[in-house]
Amino acid sequence: MSPPPPIRFGVIGCADIARKVSRAISLSPHATLYAVGSRSLSKAQTFAKSNNFPDDAKVYGSYEELLDDPNVDAVYVPLPTSLHLRWAVIAAKKGKHVLLEKPVALSAVEFDEIVVACESSGVQLMDGTMWMHHPRTSFMKEFLSDANRFGQLKSIHTVFTFCADPDFLENDIRVKPDLDALGALGDEGWYCLRAILWAANYELPKTVLASREPILNKAGVILSCGASLYWEDGKVATFYCSFLSNLTMDITAVGTKGTLHVHDFIIPYEEKKASFYAASESSFDDLVTKWGSEPSKHIIENDLPQEVLMVSEFSRLVAEIKFKNSKPEKKWPAISRKTQLVLDAVKASIDKGFEPIQIQE
Fold first, then answer.
1. Structural domain contains residue 113
2. Same domain flag for 198 and 97
3. Which of 21, 280, 288, 327 has the most beta carbons within 10 angstroms of its beta carbon?
C-alpha cells in the first residue's frame, strides 16, 4: 500500500520563525511547501525565493487568497499573537488544518474560540512547541515516570532567557502591546510553563503567584518575569523568563528518588543530537567532600530536527483525517489550553499586584 501524498502547506505571513518552519516543511517526507501569503505580494515572492519554495509554489498578496485556495490542506500561522484568533478561526472555517505558533492566543478565552472553530470544521489544531516532538523528550519522560529511579515529583524549576539587542527591545513585535502584548511571558514563559506541566503530567496547579518586580518596557509589555506554582499535593514549581539575561534553557525536575537536568530543552545545542542528565539516589562520600556518584549523561541522536518531526506528526494527523476519515487528535489542543490557562494566571497575578490566582479549568 503506497503512502498518502504529502500534506500541502500554506504559510500565512513571513515572520522570522516562518523561515525555520518552512525549512522543516521542505525536509519532512510527509509535507510540501505549497503556498505562501503575505499582505505584500513582493514580500511573499521574496520569502518564497529565499526559503527554497518549489518553483510552482503559489504566492499570494493576501492571507485571504491563500485560504481560498482549495488545494491548501493545512496552514502554518506565525503571525503576531493578537492576530491568531482572527486568522486561525477563518482558516478553520475554510477547512484548513491549523499549525499555530505559540503563545496560541492572548487568553484562554480567545483560544477556546479557535478550538470551537477547529472542532466545528473537523480540522486538526496543534501549537508550534517544537521540543515536544524531539525523541529526547520521550526518553526524559520515561525517566520521570520511573518509580524506582525518579520516584514522586516534588519540584520543577524552568528558565528561558536570552539577551536581546537594543533593536529588538525597541522594534520587535514581541515588545509591542498591539502585536504581542504578553511579551517575554508569552514568547519565553510559554516554554517554561509547558515544561512544568509536561513534568507534572499536565496536572494543573491550584495556585499561581507571580514574582514581584517584573521588568516592563515603557509601553507596559513584560521584558522579564517569573512565578511560583503550587499543587494541592505539595508540588511546587518556579520559572523565570527574560529578554534581558544570557541565553539559558533549563529544566530541573526533582523527585523523591531522582533528579532530571536538561540545559538546552527548547533548542538543542546540536541539531541532530541532544542530551540530558539523570541522577538517582544521589549521596555524598563518607567525608562529605564530593558526591558518591555523578548524574549519568544520556545522549539521543535524531536523523531529523525536532521541527521536522513536529511537521511530520502534524501532517500524519492531517493525513489520517483527510484520507481515512479519522477524527482530529484532541490531545494537542488540550495541552495548549492548559499552558495558556497557567500563562493567563501569571499575567493576572502581575496585573493584580502579585495576588495569588486560583486556576479554574
1. yes
2. no
3. 21
Residues 283 and 349 in one domain: yes
49 is catalytic: no
Residues 283 and 161 in one domain: yes
Annotated catalytic residue: which of 58, 96, 102, 347? Answer: 102
Residue with grid cell 488545494, as numbered in its chain: 71
Q: Name the residue among 204, 201, 194, 195 with its Cα closest to residue 230.
A: 204
- pLDDT (tens place) for every residue of the chain, 361 residues total: 778 899 999 999 998 999 999 999 999 999 999 999 999 999 999 999 999 899 999 999 999 999 999 999 999 999 999 999 999 999 999 999 999 999 999 999 999 999 999 999 999 999 999 999 999 999 999 999 999 999 999 999 999 999 999 999 999 999 999 999 999 999 999 999 999 999 999 999 999 999 999 999 999 999 999 999 999 999 999 999 999 999 999 999 999 999 999 999 999 999 999 999 999 999 999 899 999 999 999 999 999 999 999 999 999 999 999 999 999 999 999 999 999 999 999 999 999 999 999 998 7
Query: Does residue 2 sit within a domain?
Result: no
Burial of 235 (0-12, 13-18, 19+ CB in 10 A): buried
Residues 6+ apart with CB under 8 A from 223: 169, 175, 183, 184, 214, 215, 216, 217, 242, 243, 244
Q: What is the DSSP string of 302-332?
A: -SS-HHHHHHHHHHHHHHHHHHH-PPPPSHH
Number of domains in the chain: 2
